[in-house]
Amino acid sequence: MFLRLTAIATIYPKIAYFLAWNDNWAPIANQNAFAFYNNPQMVNLGGIALNNSLTTTTTTTTSSTTTKTIPSTTTTSTARSSTTSAARSSTTSAATASTTSTTRLSTTATTTSSTKSATTSSTTSSTKLSTTSTTTSSTKSSTSFSSSSPSSVVIYNFSMGIGQWNVSTTNVNGGPWESNEFTYASTDSLKADILLYGGGQYYFYTDQSSTFTFSNYKTLFAQARVASWGFQSGDTMTGKLYIKTGSSWTWYDSGAVQLNSNSATQLVLYLNNTPSSALADIREVGVEYTLYTKSANGAQTSIYLAYITAQN
Prior knowledge:
The protein is 7% helix and 29% strand. The chain has helices spanning 2-11, 33-37, 94-97, 276-279; strands at residues 74-76, 152-156, 165-167, 172-184, 187-195, 201-206, 219-226, 236-245, 250-253, 257-258, 265-270, 282-292, 300-311. The strands form two sheets. Strands 1, 3, 6, 8, 9, 10 and 12 form a seven-stranded antiparallel beta sheet that branches. Strands 2, 4, 5, 7, 11 and 13 form a six-stranded antiparallel beta sheet that branches.
């Protein structure tokens, strides 16, 4: 879609596009929808004023964090075998074997400087200086390293694909996929379908070491959610953001936090509590989902993960 838009804009530079549908065939349901909507030639309805000037609308999304928290733990685990839920096999599904990493950066800088000087016989001088600078930066990637400020960086978002993220295999019915069923900060999420059994544990994880660029930050954040269907009365699902480090795969986590089905739950891992030697040898990053139930019978539900950031 993006290449077609570029070709049409080159041949017919004055063309106008009208997007007037919102069903299963809408542009947002197609590949490269983000690039299509964010092409410099594209102006959304909300960005047009009656005087033919552009307006800018900023939307801020805040997360909802559940207060039920279980203290974090530090354990030592071995490398994953293929027979346990803590295992990671060397075989990855086709959906997770490819890596999509695209970074788009657009910067606009405008500087206006005017100086006026008038000198009279009595040596009167007047100088006026007006400077305006505007910079716009937009980056989208499944494994991106952009930052809105030196104190904050986006480590993973999933609007351009899932990168080298995987899901554990025990009691998992499919995934991971990129999904817009749960979005955060206008970015898509990872999704997997799981089967609900008592004590079940499910993992999203990546061992792509080139993306572990947050060792100098103090805090790691992730946004997690669970679907509303499949659960019995009294069932709860918790999430833990974790890292594994060193040859012994030592585990550091955020502590378990109960997840919601109607909003994001923020998981927080304090990296400044982790030895610097461990942060220098991160082997895996992931989120563990654990089901607490009295009557689960194998019903299906979905788990989601979105927008992992680091901050100082």
